[in-house]
């Protein structure tokens, strides 16, 4: 398959590459997985690729093809919790989130939300997500089944929470671990699906459950780990009371063997320099969730200190603490939050860097660099077709753009689901 349109992709160093008249060629590999074969300028590539037998060219004038977005942290069961008002994280969990998640013991209910959630991701141009389910094993079966039907690369896990949680969402220490192992064996590596060991956060798991999670993480090395850390000051005080011997909140996870490659911690706002060094040393990633951090008044991720420490990070919506499924809203909020970080002066994130954090950078942080989130040869062919003229104001702004930064920034600031004309997922046949 050959597409002709403007084309955005990323170099290995993260810088954006742009062809105003581009060519993208894809073909199935031996397993039937559609992959990028060539990407670049139409002028340079068309002679070689359009002459091949069976080549069909789809010409998309005025459109821009870009990598599918990767959401590093989201809660599919919180689709209906978006916009629930509360005074910060802990009241929000108690009054809205836990009561709502209790409904997912019902498989039919979970199926319905999973279907809506995945359609909403695709409508917003998100082709891969690392998502929490709930503590009910059912809720994992629901999202995995629905993602498999759509051919999406999706990573999910059953929440472990055996204390400080109400009836209806609290699991049993041992049973939660047994269910986790059963679900790893049922889903991890099936088609494009992956499993994530998912302790909700340190306060809602006993040391015994965290220890068991760490043991599973050591036995199943290519399974992901996901949790929350250092989001909110009340939460951090609580963790200090519960784990007085730990060096820090992040240190709790390290003590239980939950920091390694493919571990992803949401928020990472109130870290110290030792925590940042530990993230780097353990090849563990941060999922930055700026619309959630603004909604719950949690604080601001510090990009400058993250870059100085050189650990992996990427962007995430954190729906339903987050306010939108749209990657454009998340990138816009990240821009604002980046400025508000602890040393405000003279710092602004570049448009190409924001976009990278939600595509190739997020993929790299998940350990899927070169697999998704980019349109370089060999990548799986998950991509979006954008229509930069989808609203009157966007049409004006993008037509006036003289540089790539201006074009990308117009879309980051003004874009939403209307900008996504098509989302193409490269389902294996
Ligand atoms: N910490 C523990 N659980 C949650 C959750 O569901 N959302 C957010 N934002 N933080 C959490
Ligand atoms: Fe979250």
Total DSSP E strands: 15
Shape: globular
The fraction of residues in strands falls at: 15-25%
| CATH classification, class level of the largest domain | Alpha Beta
CATH evolutionary superfamily of the largest domain: Metal-dependent hydrolases
Each distinct ligand: guanine, fe (iii) ion
Q: State the end-to-end distance.
A: 15 Å
C-alpha Rg (nearest Å): 21 Å
Remind me, CATH topology of the largest domain?
TIM Barrel
The tally of helices reads 16
CATH arch. level architecture of the largest domain: Alpha-Beta Barrel
List the helices and strands and how they pair.
Elements: E1 2-10, E2 16-28, E3 34-41, H1 42-50, E4 57-67, E5 69-75, H2 89-101, H3 107-123, E6 126-132, H4 137-150, E7 153-157, E8 159-160, H5 173-187, E9 193-199, H6 207-219, E10 224-229, H7 233-242, H8 249-255, E11 263-267, H9 273-281, E12 285-288, H10 290-295, H11 303-309, E13 312-315, H12 327-340, H13 351-357, H14 360-365, E14 383-386, H15 392-400, H16 404-414, E15 420-424
Parallel strand pairs: 1-4, 5-6, 6-7, 7-9, 8-9, 9-10, 10-11, 11-12, 12-13
Antiparallel strand pairs: 1-2, 2-3, 4-14, 14-15
Helix pairs in contact: 3-4, 4-5, 5-6, 12-13, 12-16, 15-16
The structure holds guanine and fe (iii) ion (FE).
InterPro entries: Amidohydro-rel, Guanine_deaminase, Metal-dep_hydrolase_composite, Metal_Hydrolase, Metallo-dep_hydrolases
Domain Amidohydrolase-related: 65-408
Organism: Comamonas terrigena
């Amino acid at each position: 398959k050959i597409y002709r349109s403007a084309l955005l992709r990323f170099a290995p160093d993260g810088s954006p590459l742009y062809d105003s008249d581009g060519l993208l060629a894809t073909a199935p590999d031996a397993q039937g997985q559609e992959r990028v074969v060539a990407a670049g300028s139409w002028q340079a590539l068309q002679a070689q690729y359009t002459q091949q037998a069976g080549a069909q060219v789809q010409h998309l004038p005025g459109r821009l093809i870009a990598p599918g977005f990767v959401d590093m942290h989201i809660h599919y069961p919180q689709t209906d919790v978006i916009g629930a008002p509360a005074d910060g994280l802990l009241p929000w969990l108690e009054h809205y989130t836990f009561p709502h998640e209790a409904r997912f013991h019902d498989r039919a209910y979970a199926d319905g939300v999973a279907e809506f959630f995945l359609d909403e991701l695709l409508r917003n141009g998100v082709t891969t997500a690392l998502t929490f389910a709930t503590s009910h094993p059912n809720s994992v079966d629901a999202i995995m089944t629905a993602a498999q039907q759509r051919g999406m690369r999706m990573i999910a896990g059953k929440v472990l929470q055996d204390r400080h949680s109400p009836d209806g969402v609290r699991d049993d220490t041992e049973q939660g671990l047994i269910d986790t192992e059963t679900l790893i064996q049922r889903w991890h590596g099936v088609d494009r699906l992956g499993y994530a060991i998912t302790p909700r956060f340190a306060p809602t798991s006993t040391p015994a459950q965290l220890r068991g999670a760490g043991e599973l993480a050591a036995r199943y090395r290519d399974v992901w780990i996901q949790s929350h850390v250092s989001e909110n000051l009340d939460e951090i005080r609580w963790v200090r009371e519960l784990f007085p011997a730990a060096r820090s909140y992040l240190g709790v996870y390290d003590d239980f063997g939950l920091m390694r490659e493919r571990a992803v911690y949401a928020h990472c706002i109130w870290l110290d320099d030792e925590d940042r060094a530990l993230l780097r040393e353990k090849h563990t990633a941060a999922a930055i969730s700026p619309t959630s951090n603004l909604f719950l008044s949690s604080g601001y991720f510090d990009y400058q200190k993250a870059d100085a420490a050189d650990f992996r990070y990427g962007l995430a919506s954190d729906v339903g603490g987050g306010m939108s499924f749209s990657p454009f809203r998340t990138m816009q909020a990240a821009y604002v939050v980046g400025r508000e970080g602890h040393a405000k002066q003279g710092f602004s994130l570049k448009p190409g860097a924001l976009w990278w954090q939600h595509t190739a950078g997020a993929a790299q942080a998940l350990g899927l660099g070169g697999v998704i989130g980019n349109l370089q040869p060999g990548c799986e062919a998950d991509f979006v077709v954008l229509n930069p003229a989808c609203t009157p104001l966007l049409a004006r702004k993008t037509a006036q753009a003289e540089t790539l930064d201006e074009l990308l920034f117009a879309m980051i600031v003004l874009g939403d689901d209307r900008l996504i004309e098509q989302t193409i997922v490269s389902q294996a046949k």
